[in-house]
Design brief:
By secondary structure, the chain is mainly β. The chain has one domain. It contains one helix and 30 strands. The strands form five sheets. A nine-stranded parallel sheet has the order 1-3-6-9-13-17-21-25-28, with helices on one face. The protein has a nine-stranded parallel sheet with strand order 2-4-7-10-14-18-22-26-29, with no helix packed on it. The longest helix has 14 residues. It is elongated and about 55 Å long. It starts with 9 loop residues before the first helix and ends in a 9-residue tail after the last strand.
């Protein structure tokens, strides 16, 4: 099956999303073993920087695999996907790589009060001021069998730098997934959850993430709430709270049959703030 459109399929994918937005919904099937490469944004109408693809404004499903890649391969800083308020994007079986939102949020995907569902997706090598891999801005983000790895925050704005793997102040559900090897210039190497958001992890691993300040694996920020079920938090590192850091103004961090171990220099901080974690 050939890639959609010319030159690796990028132009055809843009057109397919435009058509689906016009219709209000649509399913786009991408070819296996194809690269959909971008060197410039095609949509600059958003308020948070340019996007490789048209902003998602309907109910759109994009299916790929195996070895389907959507990636930024050069040019100026721009993210790959943005989902508008009330819209929904489901992606299955695709590598999402190389996004760079510069001083903005969401290197690979920004949900701006929309809904994002990822199944069998790998989000890697993306960069942003915060939420380098994924940014959930008061929306809903659900991950199944997904890997978020090797994403990096730069801390360019003077107020960001957190949530290298995932930043969320909405509803975040992560199931049967891995968040690993992400590096935050400030806090929340793997995940940064705050501002009334809820983060739930089920049978998920947070491993090898790094934060310069607090919360190598997970930072539960002001107003955030986190629940970990059958989840492993290990080998993360930070200045403090190598595994999990709970800020004083946050909601509870609840562990059910979960393990927080072998993090550097400690597992959970402040001491005694997370029941069942030393």
């Amino acid at each position: 099956m050939p890639c959609i459109g010319p030159s690796g399929g990028a132009a055809g994918l843009v057109t397919a999303i435009q058509n689906a937005n016009t219709a209000g919904h649509g399913t786009i099937n991408l070819a296996a073993n194809c690269n959909y490469d971008f060197t410039a944004p095609t949509d600059t109408t958003g308020t948070r920087g340019g996007d490789a693809l048209p902003i998602i404004r309907g109910d759109i499903t994009i299916l790929g695999g195996p070895s389907t890649h959507i990636r930024r391969t050069g040019g100026p800083a721009f993210r790959l996907f943005e989902v508008a308020a009330g819209a929904r994007l489901l992606i299955r079986g695709i590598f999402i790589e190389g996004g760079d939102s510069g001083t903005n949020t969401g290197g690979a995907i920004l949900s701006a009060r929309g809904t994002v569902v990822l199944k069998f997706v790998t989000v890697r090598y993306n960069t942003a001021d915060n939420g380098a891999g994924l940014s959930n801005d008061s929306g809903t983000m659900v991950l199944y069998y997904t890997v978020v790895t090797s994403n990096t925050t730069r801390h360019l704005s003077g107020a960001g730098g957190g949530g290298a793997g995932i930043y969320s102040d909405g509803r975040l559900d992560v199931k049967f997934s891995v968040v690993s090897l992400n590096t935050a210039n400030t806090s929340g190497g793997g995940v940064y959850a705050e501002q009334g958001g809820t983060a739930t992890f089920y049978r998920t691993t947070l491993s090898g993430n790094v934060a310069r300040f607090n919360g190598g694996g997970l930072l539960d920020g002001p107003g955030g709430r986190a629940t970990l079920v059958l989840t492993l938090v290990e080998h993360n590192s930070a200045g403090n709270g190598g595994g999990i850091f709970r800020t004083p103004a946050s909601g509870p961090v609840i562990l059910f049959n979960s393990v927080v171990a072998a993090n550097n220099p400690n597992n959970c901080r402040p001491v005694g703030s997370i029941a069942g974690c030393s």
